[in-house]
């Protein structure tokens, strides 16, 4: 049965009159301008913005998570930002974490997508690959898209060669906005059993650690454990009392020095510490922490690029947006052209290809192994190495295949 333009074929094959709308998913590396782009698209398309970021779902970390400001959320309708409280009182005294999973987020997103009525355009934005992958891969997602007439458009923002300078600018901006005060407040409420999850490295068990996942918090926690002087700075409230404008200015100089010459890190930290009116050990530790936030943010951004490539392996088409030198005249027409195409769709065109586990064969051990990770573990195993050595000895002895070297 062929559908007329302006109608769509539902997943059960029945025809219903419904204009297809775009569902814009804005992904990208950290500090690539995702929020800025989402706001501009919302203004141009009568859009409503949905949180697709694991951190921006939580209250109390608006600076660490680079969440949209209250003014931005007032100007454009936003959904699910600051949805969860990181701390709740138990028995009126003890603070405990509110535990959430990606399934909680998914259920909320599905409800929001049903609520956003034409002509409004839903725009999902965030830097959490796992959330986008979960949404796109669920069997119920295609049924939902067909039932409400939404055609996904995937965008991936990347600052490319300007990544490090963009990250440096972002960290400086976070300090100026009050990062040290926000972190101090969080550290005063952290429970020891939750802290171990970030000190021992991030735990991936399907349960969101909320604020503990924020790059920036873990670096401060580790510094407080490693340095008595820095811990004292946090506990006596001195960290939160540092002038954000001065510290951000000094941090800007620190980042500029290492961007120009990476060999000057130690000297840069020392110059940064000399400018602060706090004990030298604590000042040195603070400089090290801020550089750690910068380094880890850059590393995470590079990992996000790999995630985009993984999404494409599932048969998803992604429009890559270069935000290294933000030029609206180049960026917006490209996206709006894709949006215009959706209005011509007669039905939802969406397929998510599940990737079957890769089957690899070990010639030495004569076994088939499912999955690249398991295969790599196998070739590093003692049993594999022992068999490999035996094969080498056998080849050398009979002269059939002298082993090189």
From TrEMBL:
Domain of life: Eukaryota
One GO-annotated biological process of the protein: tRNA modification
Region feature Disordered, mapped onto this chain: 385-405
GO cellular component, one term: mitochondrion
Keywords, alphabetical: ATP-binding, Nucleotide-binding, Transferase
Pfam families registered for this protein in UniProt: IPPT, zf-met
Family matches, as SUPFAM superfamilies: beta-beta-alpha zinc fingers, P-loop containing nucleoside triphosphate hydrolases
Domain C2H2-type per the UniProt entry, residue ranges: 360-384
Gene3D superfamilies cross-referenced by the UniProt entry: Classic Zinc Finger (3.30.160.60), P-loop containing nucleotide triphosphate hydrolases (3.40.50.300)
InterPro entries membership: Dimethylallyltransferase, P-loop_NTPase, Znf_C2H2_sf, Znf_C2H2_type
Single Gene Ontology MF annotation: tRNA dimethylallyltransferase activity
Family membership: Belongs to the IPP transferase family.
Name of the protein in its database record: tRNA delta(2)-isopentenylpyrophosphate transferase
High-level lineage: Eukaryota, Metamonada, Diplomonadida, Hexamitidae, Giardiinae
């Amino acid at each position: 049965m062929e559908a007329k333009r302006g109608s769509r074929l539902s997943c059960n094959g029945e025809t219903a009159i419904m204009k297809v709308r775009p569902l814009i998913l804005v992904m990208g590396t950290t500090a690539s301008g995702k929020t800025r782009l989402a706001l501009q698209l919302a203004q141009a398309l009568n859009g409503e913005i949905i949180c697709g970021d694991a951190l921006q779902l939580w209250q109390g970390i608006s600076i660490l998570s680079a969440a949209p400001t209250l003014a931005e959320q007032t100007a454009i309708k936003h959904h699910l930002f600051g949805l969860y409280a990181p701390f709740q009182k138990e028995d009126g005294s003890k603070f405990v974490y509110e535990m959430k999973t990606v399934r909680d987020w998914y259920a909320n997103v599905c409800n929001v997508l049903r609520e956003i009525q034409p002509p409004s355009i839903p725009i999902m934005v965030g830097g959490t690959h796992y959330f986008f992958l979960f949404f796109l891969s669920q069997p119920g997602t295609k049924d939902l898209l067909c039932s409400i007439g939404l055609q996904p458009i995937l965008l991936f923002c990347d600052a490319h060669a300007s990544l490090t300078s963009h990250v440096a600018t972002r960290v400086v901006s976070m300090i100026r906005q009050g990062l040290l005060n926000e972190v101090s407040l969080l550290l005063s409420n952290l429970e020891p059993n939750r802290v171990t999850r970030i000190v021992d490295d991030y735990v991936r068990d399907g349960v969101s650690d909320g604020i503990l996942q924020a790059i920036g918090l873990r670096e401060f926690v580790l510094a407080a454990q490693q340095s008595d002087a820095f811990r004292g700075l946090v506990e006596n409230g001195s960290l939160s009392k540092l002038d954000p404008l001065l510290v951000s200015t000094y941090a800007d100089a620190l980042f500029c020095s290492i961007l120009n010459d990476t060999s000057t890190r130690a000297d840069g930290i020392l110059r940064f510490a000399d400018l602060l009116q706090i004990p030298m050990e604590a000042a040195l530790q603070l400089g090290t922490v801020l550089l750690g936030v910068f380094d880890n943010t850059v590393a995470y951004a590079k990992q996000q690029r790999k995630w985009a490539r993984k999404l494409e392996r599932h048969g998803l088409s992604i429009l890559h947006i270069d935000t290294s030198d933000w030029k609206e005249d180049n960026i917006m027409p490209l996206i709006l052209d894709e949006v215009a195409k959706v209005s011509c769709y007669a039905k939802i065109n969406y397929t998510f290809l599940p990737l079957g586990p890769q089957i690899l064969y070990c010639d030495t051990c004569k076994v088939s192994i499912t999955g690249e990770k398991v295969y790599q573990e196998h070739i590093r195993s003692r049993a594999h190495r022992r068999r490999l050595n035996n094969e080498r000895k056998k080849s050398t002895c009979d002269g059939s295949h002298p082993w090189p070297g």
